[in-house]
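To: structure desk
From: M.T.
Subject: fold request, one chain
Message: Could you run this one when you get a chance? Sequence is below, nothing fancy, just the single chain.
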Amino acid sequence: MTSTKEAVAPGRADARPFTLWREVLTAYAAPALMAGAAGFATGQSGLVLAAFTSIAGTSAVVAYLLGAWLRHGGRPRRWTTTLPRPVLTGLLATATTAAAALLGWFAAGWLPAHTAVPTGKWLDRLRLDLPISAALATTIVTLRWRAAIGRWRV
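Reply: Done. Structure tokens follow.
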């Protein structure tokens, strides 16, 4: 008879439970600190500002939306648990990256034309910051969620 630990992942300790607020906090803090430190070290004040706004903010929003969607009221969707982990991660990362790229492209062009927001470098950064942040947050949240639920809980 095998133990519960062996049923979850042979040779590994039990995975940490998936806690949405913790994932969102991590999704904000990690890119904010890394990009902020890089901007500070290279003297790029625009990167330091973007680190705590568009980069980390996008990561946190994507982590929240995706984490809530994956949890699906405590009962995951069957296809999200049966697809191989790399395939699921690739599909979700592609979808969120495409959506974030469209949002960044739209915001960079629409905001200055239709609002009092002045054109600036920060708007051009959205076209790059949003999709990269979305891709990273989606990949990390999806992999952590799949590790937390385990195949035996389906």
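Reply (cont.): The helical segments are 4-8, 20-42, 45-71, 78-82, 85-114, 121-149. Let me know if you need anything else for the meeting.
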